[in-house]
Amino acid sequence: MGFTKGGIGSTSSAPSEPVIAAPAPTKLASTSELPIDFGGNSAPRAQRSFLRSGTSSTSKPSTPLPAHEQAHFNKIGSTIGAQMLAKMGWQAGTGLGATGEGIVIPIESKLRPKKMGIAFKGYKEKTEQSKLEARRRGEVVSDDEEEVRPRQSKKGDAKEKRSDAWKKPKKVKTRVEHKTYEQIVAEAGQEPAASGIGQIIDATGRTPREVASLADISLSSWTPSTDPTRIPEVRHNLRLIVDACKNDLDGLAREAKALEERKRFITQESIRLQKKVSDEAELIARLQQVKLVVDDIGAKAKELASVYEATLDDFSPLFSTLLVQYPTEFDRYRLDEIVVAAIAPMVRRIVAQWNPLQDPPGLVTTFRTWKQALKVNSVDKPPDTQIDIYGARIVATPPAIEKPMTPFESLLWNVWLPKVRTCLNNEWSPEDPTPAVKLYEAWSTFLPPFVRDNLLDQLILPKVSKAVADWSPKRSTVSLHALVFPWLPYLGLRIDYVLDDAQRKVKSLLRSWVPADGALKDLGGWMEVFDKGEWDAMLLKYVVPKLGSLLRDEFRVNPRNQNMEPLKQVLAWSTLLRGSVFSQLLETEFFPKWLDVLHIWLIQPKVSFEEVAQWYSFWKSSFPDSVQSMPGVARGFTRGLQLMNTAIELGPDAPTMLKRPDLRAEQAIANVSMKKATATKVAPARIQEITFRSIVEEFAASHNLLFIPTGRAHEKSRMPLFRISSNIGGKGGLLVYVQDDAVWAPDGDEYRAITLEDMVLRANK
């Protein structure tokens, strides 16, 4: 085959010169010197047929191609362009052109670093392709310095290379690099530290030496040598292979560690699941046993449903079995619903025939034995929360949470409570509180709080409050005390709901009381209900004046025909009145009359002192011991005894020499002598934890004066007015009020503060 025109692989002969077809291929070069893929002995015949013909002096030898270029030419070997080049005599590994002086591989570009100029800081831009081409042309190229030393340099070529350096480089496509998992781990700082490999000996030099690491050997300087075992490229490749193997081993080690962790987790999970399976199997076995017991309870309920006089005690052994043998299942699966469902029909039958007022503790005894099975009051109270308020730790009450009723609470609400409601509304009277009180006492600690509150608030207290409001001392058959006091221990914060009206009734009763009505029944119990000061003020205002009038107007001391009834009516109040007030009442109204009669008896010419002594003993025994121990009463009897002794000493001169006793004058003299001692006692009394009003009351009582409320108030200060008087009837005396730890008394049209001594002097005038 010949060519009419010059082309790739053609010679520079004239076109008219005939081209002779190449004979059989001559040996341009030994085929053993060529690589296998570039025309070696093992190359196919079709490829060997495209070898150029001619002498060895006009062709260039083949250049070994890099691996990636070999792969590239193998990939494009079947393309149209490659087939056309082969037809023109070109083969892979030889240069283009008739003499093979052209390039062997496609043009390769080298990307200059960003923002770097041409030959910046001696940077060389020679590519691997240009190095290979230079070596093929016979030039010596250094791998380290990237410098080219041509054998024959020409001025034109050098000028052309310098001009090419300023040309704009071609754009090169960025090559994507892929990283392995081990590289990513190493860059993230998670690669495990390399373990030591023992002692390292460097035998590269003449004398072996010990080094710390392989890096010291790789960084050590070396010089060219004829020793084939010290080829740098081989050592470099060996290091790359070793590093690659180390990375692979590290990856395998990490994978083995992960598998070991996974194996450990699977082992633990297997143990857990096996335990869960065994627990579930045990639970199934226990539930089967529970089912047998539940079936027995159901059979017992059906059996007792047909019995007329059945009792709930027959269920006790079965309920005990559930609680004792299966406590966890009882709470977890709410078996109390089964208990309540079993007893509900019988409870309805029993409650229908039950009278709560006649048999208050009915059913509660049996229910108490089943308290745990019925879950009575078993709701857990949430823990109290301590909060810090201004440095003080206090307990905050947790918010109330509405919870549904338990089965037993529902049974009480729907079966027990309606029966109790019917009986209390239709059959119970508050005047007879005993049946209702016994019913409440029997069930109060057993009932849930909301049922107990409903029983008190809706059924009991409304009827008690109505009975208190309708109570009258003339119409009612029971005392107010018997109506209210049985419920006081159970009312708690509801006590004011009943007591407010009851206290008003007591005040009204005392206001309208007269001695002819006799002593008020059960009045002593109200002392604990009223405030002490309020109680004393109420008695001073409504009772003491009436008792003084009774002794003054209706009581007479008559040794021949003594009427003790008025005195007995007064003595009945001795435990209700304050001791100083009652003592002063007797000193004022009783002892003056008694001493006058004793004096008249002692001045008689034929007096019998034995009879007088018996009369004295009679009167002293007529007073209770608590009254005899009162200071004023003791002084009165002592004064009578002194009068008797004086009469005995005077003998026949007694009728003329025995003076008539004046108890009030003697008391006034004694008060004047004790004024200083009394004044010294006032100051420490103010230091004590008592009110100034109580100090004034005690000071007045120590001077035999009454501190009586008037029920009026001062016009300007609006403070309550009191009367300081020695008269038990509340007449005369001094009108005062107490404010700002001072006693205020009238001074003309205005009130002025006075001392306690001045108060006593003005009250005795």
From TrEMBL:
GO terms for molecular function: DNA binding. Residues 242-276 form a coiled coil. Residues 53-66 have a biased composition (Low complexity). The keyword DNA-binding applies. Residues 127-140, 148-167 have a biased composition (Basic and acidic residues). It comes from the Eukaryota. Pfam families: G-patch (PF01585), GCFC (PF07842). GO terms for cellular component: U2-type post-mRNA release spliceosomal complex. The keyword Nucleus does not apply. Keywords: Coiled coil, DNA-binding. GO terms for biological process: spliceosomal complex disassembly. Residues 77-123 form the G-patch domain. Residues 1-68, 127-171 are annotated as: Disordered. Transmembrane segments: none annotated. Belongs to the TFP11/STIP family. This is GC-rich sequence DNA-binding factor-like protein-domain-containing protein. It comes from Suillus discolor.
